[in-house]
Design a protein that fits this description.
The protein is built from 11 helices and 10 strands. The chain is α/β, with parallel strands linked by helices. Bound molecules: coenzyme A. Coenzyme A binds next to helix 2 and strand 6.
């Protein structure tokens, strides 16, 4: 498998998948989402691979979000399609993969980046990691499942605060609220996750795939929330707040939202 924005290293039964667009802090554009889809599908069908670790290339970012430059000119329908297709092709795919996926959060995990980490089966962060859902600062809402998966992990009140302030939290706070399971120094992150992967690899892959199904099924009543998120995400794309928020980001200035 050769990709432009994804790299894969396999060691024993564990695959390390890198989102590889370091010059854009690994921001998720369409091509990267498509390549990750292909990579996960291929790894899932390989019986030798018993655990997958997902991280970002470079020391600075896991993934700094969806690619703002790519969607800044989209309208309502394109916005809805972006969220629906992304959820289907990557976020839901990862969540329901039969092979466990551990997010190794090696730096910024913002917007779509945190949403991707939350779609993984569990998360480990490096001490320098910073996590948040800053979409409302761009005039939009999280569109890749963030409004649904964050409350499942940290509770409704904490999730509301993170979504409404758009602020970032550090690794220790993420550990306290259950967003990540472990915090380790950056230089130990890969080895720590590989060890977890090796532990998983000793267990029955069939049983593991059913365990994932069963845990996920317990949350399946949330499906209407994901659909509402897609609709609301798209609706934001037709607003002046969205135009101002995305233009301000690309022009590297603070936004001045016109509001209702
Ligand atoms: N989409 C597109 N490009 C992005 C991006 C994103 N989500 N996040 C970072 N980049 C790009 C920057 O535009 C910059 O590109 P340039 O060098 O061509 O100007 C490059 O990645 C490096 O980022 P920069 O902002 O210069 O790094 P920084 O260390 O000053 O700041 C962040 C780091 C993560 C705080 C900042 O990049 C940021 O706020 N990113 C957007 C986060 C966000 O809102 N994500 C949600 C999207 S829905």
């Amino acid at each position: 498998m050769t990709f432009e924005n994804v790299q894969i290293e396999v060691e024993d039964a564990v695959a390390l998948v890198f989102v590889h667009r370091p010059e854009k802090l690994n921001a998720l554009n369409r091509n990267t989402i498509g390549e990750l889809h292909q990579a996960f599908r291929t790894l899932e069908s390989d019986p030798q691979i018993r655990a997958i670790i997902l991280r970002g290339s470079g020391p600075k970012a896991f993934v700094a979000g969806a690619d703002i430059a790519e969607f800044a000119n989209y309208g309502v329908e394109e916005g809805k399609e972006l969220a629906a297709r992304g959820q289907r092709d990557l976020f839901d795919l990862v969540e329901n993969l039969r092979t466990p996926v551990i997010a190794a959060i090696n730096g910024f995990a913002l917007g779509g980046g945190l949403e991707l980490a939350m779609a993984c089966h569990f998360r480990v962060a490096s001490e320098n990691a910073k996590m948040g859902l800053p979409e409302v600062s761009l005039g939009v809402i999280p569109g890749y499942g963030g409004t649904q998966r964050l409350p499942m992990l940290v509770g409704r009140g904490r999730a509301m605060e993170m979504v409404l302030t758009g602020g970032m939290i550090g690794a220790e706070k993420a550990l306290q609220c259950g967003l990540v399971n472990h915090v380790v120094p950056l230089e130990e992150l890969d080895a720590f996750c590989r060890e977890l992967g090796a532990k998983i690899a000793k267990n029955s892959p069939v049983a593991i795939s059913y365990a994932i199904k069963a845990v996920n099924e317990g949350f399946s009543s949330r499906k209407p929330g994901f659909q509402m998120e897609i609709e609301a995400f798209g609706t934001c794309f037709g607003t002046d707040d969205f135009k101002e928020g995305t233009s301000a980001f690309l022009e590297k200035r603070p936004p001045e939202f016109p509001g209702f």
